[in-house]
Amino acid sequence: MNRQTLSRIAHTHHPIAAPITDDSVARLLDRAARAGRGRALDLGCGEAGWLLRLLAARPAWQAVGVDLDAGALTKARESAQAMGLERRIGLHHLDASEFGAREPFDLVLNVGATHAFGGLLPTLAAARTHLAPGGTVLVGEGFWEREPSRAALDGLGAAREDYQDLAGTVDAVIADGWTVVLGHVSSPQEWDDYEFSWTGSLAEWALDNPGHPDSAAAREAADLHRAEWLHGYRGTFGFTTLLLRRTAA
Ligand SMILES: C[S@@+](CC[C@H](N)C(=O)[O-])C[C@H]1O[C@@H](n2cnc3c(N)ncnc32)[C@H](O)[C@@H]1O
User: Fold this and answer.
1) 65 touches ligand 1 (CB under 6 Å)
2) Which residue spans within 178-249 are E strands per DSSP?
């Protein structure tokens, strides 16, 4: 089973691919899309969960999503059609670093996809190239809640220097010329809901598809991920979603 198919099944009951509840998503989007009309771009949109929620709540907004995962984009198109939003969203199967548009965007999102640009600050630099004057960036990034153990690093496949603590993360963003106008830190409950949903959806799929050639692999992936989380990074790896505006033009 390839990684993208596995991830799609794992996100069956939690389409936002980050430890954030629907209520938190709605609150962040409400502040992010302040104007009555506007254009949003998601660089690493996955199934376009953020953009579809935004369009449903803001009838005069348009959106563009970019992702490397063709299957996630197919799911995004199906969801857009089911919600009657397909005319207001463009979806591009492309490396986010290669995306170019003629007009700038009022809101640029990148949640859980900063690896597409090699980290948080390169992601903000890329977002800035797409941002209209006075526009807003919504970026979601991991951080260390506490010093990571070897098991936490192994479970995440990360190095200590890949992330900072929350203070260091926010300080770096501010030093890069951004004003933090709102921040969300995923709660332990949001993390537990997300991880149990991820592993549970995959394990349930394996139960429901016993004859499928990928059934055993799905079960193994769910078991491995659960162990990496519970015995590794639970309580150590945090996630923050920051709403940013340029401090000076
Ligand atoms: C953790 S998911 C987050 C998806 C979405 N932002 C959300 O919150 O639901 C990360 C996404 O980044 C995408 N991605 C990774 N590298 C990328 C790249 N270079 N260009 C475009 N998308 C990329 C993956 O395919 C995946 O859909």
Assistant:
1) no
2) 178-185, 237-246
